[in-house]
Write a structure and sequence with these properties.
- The chain is α+β, with helices and mostly antiparallel strands and about 270 residues long.
- It has 3 domains: about 70 residues, no CATH class; about 70 residues, no CATH class; about 90 residues, Helix Hairpins.
- The protein contains 12 helices and 11 strands.
- The strands form 4 sheets. It has a 4-stranded antiparallel beta sheet.
- It is globular and about 75 Å long.
- The chain starts with a strand and ends with a strand.
- About 0% of the residues have low confidence.
Length: about 270
């Protein structure tokens, strides 16, 4: 009997494919009957893989980097037993063995509350850099799912921009978005993430803030430009050392301020209570 593949929909969360609906959706992801719906089923894995991506686009969800039919054979070979909760993905090894575990399990796929994950070499590198030792077991480590999906979304957006037929002058406008990537590459090449410390970066930030204050008092536009730019560089690196990303921090802040109301008083915006 041919294996049947099912496209399922968790409203507001994701669209995915499985050949074991109960195990995948109810046991692994914790959803009950009525909290998800079946969109389509078929024994044709190529058709169902294509439809999954079409439906993800149609419903406005994050689109998987690789079709399901390109993963199914590899899934059977993977044996790394990860633990996925609403907040984190935990790996069954200490930090010093994480890179090897990840590289042995490339093309593994799993689901989180924030979206699906496909493990490639780039993501493995991000996980190694972002992982923290479990407070309950020194032989386990974890990453935050939200930050991981933010990284994947940013990577996908960058790939989509690279594929668009921009004119050179138009591309310059979009390259601004990726200066954070250039800053991180610069910092990584110099060992800041491997040997740096958040407290040291914070002190550096205060130093640059002092430089900006002096530049404002002197009304020196060139020094103001340098100081603000230096502060952005330090903030980008500080976020990385704390296991965050500057994009995530900015987005979180904007989500809050975009809903604020208030008025200007003596040159300062004062929010309503």
């Amino acid at each position: 009997m041919d294996k049947e593949y099912t496209i399922y929909h968790i409203p507001g969360k994701k669209i995915g494919v499985t050949n074991d609906l109960y195990s995948r959706v109810e046991q692994q992801q914790g959803y009950d009957v009525g909290e998800y719906e079946i969109l389509e089923s078929s024994t044709d894995i190529d058709y169902i893989s294509k439809r999954e991506i079409e439906l993800q686009k149609e419903y406005g969800y994050r689109v998987d980097l690789k079709p399901y039919n390109e993963l199914s054979v590899n899934l059977k070979l993977k044996n790394m037993k990860i633990n996925v909760t609403e907040q984190t993905t935990t790996f069954p090894c200490p930090l010093n063995k994480l890179k090897g575990q990840l590289m042995d399990n490339l093309e593994m796929r799993w689901d989180t509350e924030h979206g699906s994950v496909y493990l490639d070499a780039d993501l493995a590198k991000w996980i190694v850099k972002s992982a923290k030792t479990s407070m309950f077991n020194n032989d386990r480590c974890y990453v935050y799912n939200k930050a991981m999906i933010k990284y994947l979304d940013h990577k996908r957006y960058k790939n989509e921009i690279d594929e668009l037929p921009f004119k050179e002058e138009e591309l310059e406008e979009y390259n601004v978005v990726f200066y954070f990537d250039k800053i991180r590459e610069w910092a990584e090449e110099r060992g800041i993430y491997e040997h740096g410390d958040p407290k040291t970066q914070y002190l550096k930030l205060m130093e640059e803030a002092g430089e900006l204050g002096r530049a404002i008092l002197k009304d020196n536009e060139g020094e103001q430009l340098d100081a603000i730019g230096d502060m952005v560089v330090v903030l980008t690196n500080l976020a990385e050392l704390l296991g965050l990303s500057i994009e995530e921090c900015v987005e979180s802040a904007y989500d809050v301020i975009s809903k604020r109301t208030g008025k200007m008083i003596n040159g300062t915006f004062v929010k309503d209570n």
